[in-house]
Amino acid sequence: MMTSSGHLATKNTTNTAIKIDKLNKWYGDHHVLKDVSLDISEGEIMVVCGPSGSGKSTLIRSLNHLEDYQEGVVSVFGQPLSRDRQSHKIIHQTMGMVFQNFNLFPHLTVLQNCTLGLTWLRKMSERDADKMAMRLLDRVGIAQLATRYPGQLSGGQQQRVAISRSLAMEPKIMLFDEPTSALDPEMVKEVLDVMIDLAKTGMTMVCVTHEMQFAKQVADRVVFMADGEIIEVGPPEQVLVNPQWDRTKEFLQHVL
Amino acid sequence: MDDLNVKNPPTLKQFVPTPPRPPRQSKSGIFGTIRQRCFNSIGNSVLTLCVIAVLFYLVKHVLDWAVFNAVFIADNRRQCMDISPDGACWAGVISWFNGLIYGRFPVDEQWRVNVGVLLGLVWLLPLMSKRIPLRNVILLSWIGLYPFVGAYLFLGGRFGAELGWVHGVMTCLALAFLTIIYANWILSVWDKKGLNELFVPLVSRFVERRIHLLSFVAAWLLIALVMAFALNQVSLEPVAIERWGGLFLTFIIASFAITMAIPIGVVLALGRRSKLPVIHWLSMTVIELVRSVPLITVLFMAVTLLPIFLPADVEFNKLAQVLVAVCIFAGAYMAENIRGGLQAIPKGQYEAAATLGLGYLHTMALIILPQALRMMIPNIMTSFISLLKDTTLVSIIGLFDIMLMARNIANDKDWVGMHTEPLVMISVLFFLFCYSMSQYSLTLEKRLKVDR
């Protein structure tokens, strides 16, 4: 269960949280993921970047079965996932996800968004669920907005609600699918700050993002993808500052 | 974007917003507006005058017929004609008014209809108040329990005898539930604990979990028992279903169809979107078959065909057959409305629910349907309104609803040939109901707007 890569995570962890083994996916004839293999250790912050259409969103959405894949195995904490009930249970108990478009439930208040899973799935009492959700909302700095509806919040606030909604289910791994891409520039920072705070708590995180500054600051490893393949994996100073491949250099020139 | 902490360079000029200008004042009053809009040119002035003349002519004729030349007190149509030959004869409608509302329900027992309808409305009243918790439960209890109380009052008979003891038990439970709702509502105004909370100390002696639910059940059963003893003392005159009629029957059919349309529609809509082929094709067949046939055909089929499919010893009365037919018809239309709402829900909502770990039923009941139904309130209300109007078709298969009662007036020997006035009367009644429904839908839409 050791990480197979030579470029080891900076944190001293031995457990593999997610092991992706030769993942292949086609949309019709279009080969979207080509033999993608990757190990993510527990507590590691992994940033996935690459040009649009490179399959990074598809990859992260394959991890919690929002997308089907035709070949390959994803294992979570040593458990290979399939399409059965047991695997779904593992996914929901270990992984939370934050989307590009927030996907908050517009007919529920901020607080109800966060307590929904607790009261209906965990069978937690309403009072305990409220308490826990308020703690999380306080942590992301929007406890005072608990009674508002998502439509009354700014994009940055909505994304922070979405993060606390995921955290309420106490996941071990957080998946971020371009969490700041739909935000106005002045709101990007408030969401990134929350993510940086989260990273400091030792949460395992997989982030698809274009925020290179964030990657340099907190990522343990950066994955660069293009055309459905992983081109480079390594610590940020290696991939982002000193890229080995032309594709990476070209991309970084566009982004930075 | 490459630095997260961008500092404002101090050399930049301070931005000073331009102060807002006051809005332009309109100086002309109501006369000014009329002059500006209707008499701003010779052509427009002529048009305005023409329209006023036509309107005056129409309104005058209508008022002459309906009010000024109308007869309100007369014994029969001949007298009406003698008093005023070219006015409405409202006397006939007035003398038949009772029949229009209650059909052929015995006059002495009509208070039961009033009480029954009133109870139904009273049951729904708490839904208006925001103080009441668990309003969905009240709505569900209305759907599940009120019909028993209604049927008991409308059909009558000795308690538990004619309608069977199951019906009697349900009636008691229903009345007990209503009592608890109101007692708790009144108690909550004074910030007192609800009736069900009285049993908490007792119940907590015996069980450790679900104390509140069980104490509620205890209170409920106790009150139901009291109700049963009380109801045992009274005996209502039995009234045959055939004697139900008028607006009362219209209301029964319409409210039954309206309440059943949503659950049937939801099931059919979800079934049509199901990935399981049997369920998909079954729902699709029902929806398409029912939608491609006029309601009148469905009604005839229910009355003539349904008995053929049922075993010989099962005998439905005509009303039950009609109710089944109208419910399926309404449900199929509702299913398409709801499907429209389901399609408008973005895929992200399903994904967000899935990542939280919600299963199919939870996702639908908590996330998707609440949004889909709210989004479709205008369409759903339109369906309800047309349903209310469509129920008049049951007069064709011989149920004495308000339409058939109105046409019956023309057959009364005292009021032979009086067709217009009853129909005008019905139109006014239906307009009142339908218009208030559409107004209610507007307020509902505002109150339940999904994206606040």
Produce the secondary structure layout.
The complex is a heterodimer of chains A (256) and B (452).
Chain A: E1 16-27, E2 30-41, E3 45-49, H1 56-63, E4 71-76, E5 79-80, H2 85-94, E6 95-98, H3 110-120, H4 126-139, H5 155-168, E7 173-177, H6 185-200, E8 204-208, H7 212-218, E9 221-226, E10 229-234, H8 236-241, H9 246-255
Parallel strand pairs in A: 3-8, 3-9, 6-7, 7-8
Antiparallel strand pairs in A: 1-2, 1-4, 4-5, 9-10
Chain B: H1 30-38, H2 42-68, H3 77-83, H4 90-102, H5 110-124, H6 135-155, E1 157-158, H7 165-189, H8 200-206, H9 211-233, E2 235-236, H10 246-273, H11 277-291, H12 295-304, H13 306-309, H14 318-343, H15 347-356, H16 360-375, H17 377-390, H18 402-409, H19 420-447
Helix pairs in contact in B: 4-10, 4-18, 5-6, 6-7, 7-9, 8-9, 10-11, 10-14, 10-18, 11-14, 12-14, 14-16, 14-17, 17-19
Q: What percent of residues of chain A are in strands?
A: 15-25%
The CATH class name of chain A reads Alpha Beta
Write down the secondary-structure element order of chain B: HHHHHHEHHHEHHHHHHHHHH
Number of domains of chain A: 1
Estimate the helix proportion of chain A, in percent.
25-40%
* Largest beta-sheet details of chain A: 6 strands, mixed
CATH structural architecture of the largest domain in chain B: Orthogonal Bundle
Q: How big is the Rg of chain A?
A: 18 Å
Shape assignment of chain B? globular
CATH architecture of chain A: 3-Layer(aba) Sandwich
Mean pLDDT of chain B: 86
At the fourth level of CATH, the homologous superfamily of chain A is P-loop containing nucleotide triphosphate hydrolases
Please outline the major beta sheet of chain B.
Answer: 2 strands, antiparallel
Summarize model confidence as the mean pLDDT of chain A. Answer: 88
Number of helices of chain A: 9
Question: Can you give the helix content of chain B as a percent range?
Answer: 55-70%
Domains of chain B (count): 3
Helical/strand content category of chain B? mainly alpha
- Secondary structure tally, helices of chain B: 19
